[in-house]
Description:
Keywords: Membrane, Transmembrane, Transmembrane helix
Protein name: DMT family transporter
Oligomer: single chain
Pfam families: EamA
InterPro entries: EamA_dom (IPR000620), EmrE-like (IPR037185)
Number of helices: 16
Organism: Abyssalbus ytuae
Structural class: mainly alpha
Amino acid sequence: MQQKKNVFPHLIEFYTATLLISTSGPLGRYINLPPPLTIFWRTVLAAIFLYIFCRWKKYSLIITNRRDFGKIILAGILFGTHWVTYFYALQLSNVAIGMLSIYTYPVITSFLEPLILKTRFKLYHLGLGLLVLLGIYLLVPDFSFENKYTKAVAFGVFSAFCYALRNIMMKPQVAKYNGSSLMFYQILTISILLSPMLFKHGSSGFLEQWKPLVVLALFTTSIGHTLFLMSFRRFSITTASIMNSAQPVFGIIIGMLFLKEYPSLLTVFGGILILAAVIIENIVSLKD
Length: 288
């Protein structure tokens, strides 16, 4: 019984991370910059915030194993690819389609995690993943390959694959190193790789939109993604992925409030299916 009670603080932490990360969709729609440039400024600012935080909390930034460091860098590359393609999906569509297209990643994760981490495959995860996938299908209005929404979904699904793979790669590292330190090296990798965007586009875009960029870097990235990464200590990657399916629902609500993007009736039905999967996963996780 004590073990079950101890999971509630982890759930609170997890859904705080989910709420913060869900702001990425509305912010990705609001910020009017090329996605690679947006992600460059996002990671530069987040790297500064995380470095100051790690020094303040006296977290070690030393990665003792070279192989671990290589995996962290590779995870950073996958993370950056996920962010750039995700923001392309947002710009090509809207908050609902952009956010929900990447939520094929719980389904992808449920297949990849047992193969890569040699964990036991749980059949009910496949069922919940399919439920989430059906919800996403209802949320996307048109799968014709002749419109920009289909391109947005394609970007979103590729983004989902990169995100699932990155999360699985980081699972063993979270047990060894502090989450803020891991996030610092990943976003530093992204900022270095995207630095040529600054020479191509200049800094005028940052001066015009520094406020939403700071919010994206501090709350969405530095705090939200660090908390989400730390949740891997308590939950499996597949469990965290399916529970995190509440994120697009939060994002759509934020988009409604601030961007006046209202979902269709099918979007509501899709959201209900996604929330059903989240509730079932929460119940099961409390019993583990």
